[in-house]
Structures are given as C-alpha cells and as structure tokens.
Amino acid sequence: xxxxxxHGRQLAGPALVVLDLLGTFVFALSGAAAGVKxxxxxxxxxxxxxxxxxAGGITRDLLIGAVPPAAIEDxxxxxxxxxxxxxxxxxxxxxxxxxKPILLLDAAGLALFAVxxxxxxxxxGLNPAMAAVMGMLSGIGGGIVRDILVNETPxxxxxxxxxxxxxxxxxxxxxxxxxxxxxxAGMIVGAFLCLxxxxxxxxxxxxxxTARAAAGDV
Length: 218
Fold this sequence. Notes:
By secondary structure, the protein is mainly α. The chain has one domain. It has eight helices and no strands. The chain starts with a helix and ends in a 14-residue tail after the last helix.
C-alpha cells in the first residue's frame, strides 16, 4: 500500500497538486458563500469551507488507498480553506451571495476536482472506468456535504447535470489517457466539458429526464 501511495504521488506531480489545491480553494469559497447566505458565524463558516473543500478529495484518497489523505496530511489544504473562509467573511458585503454565484463557484470546483481526481486514480493504478468514477466522486463529495450541512437538498440529487458533468470530465481524462494524450491536455478538455455542461444546466436549464407520477398519484 505504501508503495502504491508513493508511486501515485510521484506520477501526480506538482502541477496536479496545484490544480487540486485550486479546486479545494474554489469549493471552499462556495462553502463559505453558502455559510454567509445561511448567516453562520466565523467558526461555522470556516468549518463549512473546509468540509466543502476537502470532502471529495478525502473520499477519493481513502478509496484509492492514499492514506492519510492529502487534505489531512498536508497543511496547504487547510490553509487554502481558511483563506477562502476568511476572504468570504470579511468581503461578503461586496459579494452577492444569492444562489447563482454559489453555483458558479461550485461548477468551477466540480470541474477541477473531477479531472484531478480521475488523474490521481489513474496514477494510483486503477482501471480507467473506475478512475472516471473516482473523479466523479471527488467532484460531487464537497457539494453534497455543503448542502447537507446547510440543510438543503444536495444539488446532485436534483434534476440537474451535476454528477453527469463530473463523470463526463473523468471520461475525457480517461479517453486522453487511452490515446496517450499528455495528461494536462486531457484534464483541460475534461474541465471545460464539465464546466460547459454545468453552465448550460444553470443558465439554460439542461437536465436529465425526471420520473413522472401516474395520473391520480399524490
């Protein structure tokens, strides 16, 4: 297990760590914005920022055997979440904290986590199909925890392109890997695909088909 962990981190490289931290920061901002919207105090806001920024990454690392998870072992993950929480707390009068900005931050975080999660899973030796699933789980984990903590229905459970967008990003990274495309190029394509699908869902109402109750059902 330790050999797998070292091998995975060597393959990840500093660029992947930077993207992972950027995804953590953006997701933490979305969590902090949700905290402002729900009138949490400074402590609650920073806790929500940390949980949102790291839940997906911790889940991914545990499932691929990268223990202890980077979010717990490496201090920059905590630092970027605290920075996001403090920035949102002090500058919130200048930030519109209605639902749409939170969704836009969430979309950016989803895209970054989906591609970095998939790449880390590939580096850890997972087969391509499960690597894409790990990317999806990395992306949706933070948003699920954020929404649950502020007593909202998780976005992933609504008629919305959320998990599908994250899975599409993971499949793009896996496809690039199979075609021997440079990893960074595949990640860029996957991130833009995920972001495009989420923006279409937010602004154009794209969504998956929903179940319809039979006539007369309550």
